[in-house]
Write a structure and sequence with these properties.
It contains three helices and five strands. By secondary structure, the chain is α+β, with helices and mostly antiparallel strands. The chain has one domain: Roll (Ubiquitin-like (UB roll)), CATH 3.10.20. Strand 1 and strand 2 form a beta hairpin.
């Protein structure tokens, strides 16, 4: 098990223990956070947009061109923007801190 520390859109903190092997989108959604993910993880809707804490952003693989465009087009782009469906959750992300972006 590994832990995700997530802040929802209301500012409430959530500690989520999850098994590696899913995407962050799946981890957040399975924990009951309001991650719509209407495209089912295909990186074409931005409804799983998150902000990764700066201390963790550099530990992730770079955004793909498609993910970059979708984050920028969301209207809430920040340098630490990611689509949760494009981040594979594994043991190296144990303790990651993130915040749900405003709804798109």
């Amino acid at each position: 098990m590994a832990t995700v520390y997530a802040t929802d859109r209301d500012g409430a903190g959530h500690t989520i223990d999850a098994a590696p092997g899913a995407t962050l989108m799946e981890v957040l959604r399975d924990a009951g956070l309001p991650v719509e993910a209407i495209c089912g993880g295909q990186a074409i809707c931005s409804t799983c947009h998150i902000y990764v804490d700066d201390a963790w952003a550099g530990k992730l693989d770079p955004r793909s061109d498609t993910e970059q465009v979708m984050c920028e087009d969301s209207g809430y782009f920040q340098e630490n923007s990611r689509l949760a469906c494009q981040v594979d959750f594994d043991e190296s992300l144990d303790g990651i801190q993130l915040t749900l972006a405003p709804e798109y």
